[in-house]
Amino acid sequence: MLAALWATEQALTPAEIQAGLGGGLAYNTVHTILKRLYDKGLVLRDADGRRGCYRPAKNAAELTAQAMRRALDRDPDPASALDRFVASLSPEETRILRGLLDGEA
């Protein structure tokens, strides 16, 4: 559901989101999921003056970074968690991380 919202710059109605997902979910299911995402602060409602429209509260990168931060904060040994995470990176991801840490973003 969030991927459908991230794919556009405009706020979408539940019907537009349902159509974008291929119609495999019932309208009521889409609406219920959007309400739950709204209650969690992941989407915003009534954006851009269109009643009943939704847009993401954060982009994918922001949401991922927030989840990573929360995971590290919960871990009793964040250094070990980071070590395991870095060991799992591909060579390209390692290159990107090195560039970011060196301020070459």
TrEMBL record:
Entries under CDD domains matching the protein: HTH_ARSR
Gene Ontology MF annotations: DNA binding
Coiled coil region boundaries: none
One Gene Ontology term from the biological process aspect of the record: negative regulation of DNA-templated transcription
Electron transport among keywords: no
Annotated keywords: DNA-binding, Transcription, Transcription regulation
UniProt cross-references to Pfam families, sorted A to Z: Penicillinase_R
Xref: InterPro entries: ArsR-like_HTH, BlaI_family, WH-like_DNA-bd_sf, WH_DNA-bd_sf
Matches recorded under SUPFAM superfamilies: Winged helix' DNA-binding domain (SSF46785)
Keyword Transcription regulation on entry: yes
Family note: Belongs to the BlaI transcriptional regulatory family.
Record's protein name: CopY family transcriptional regulator
Organism: Streptomyces mangrovisoli
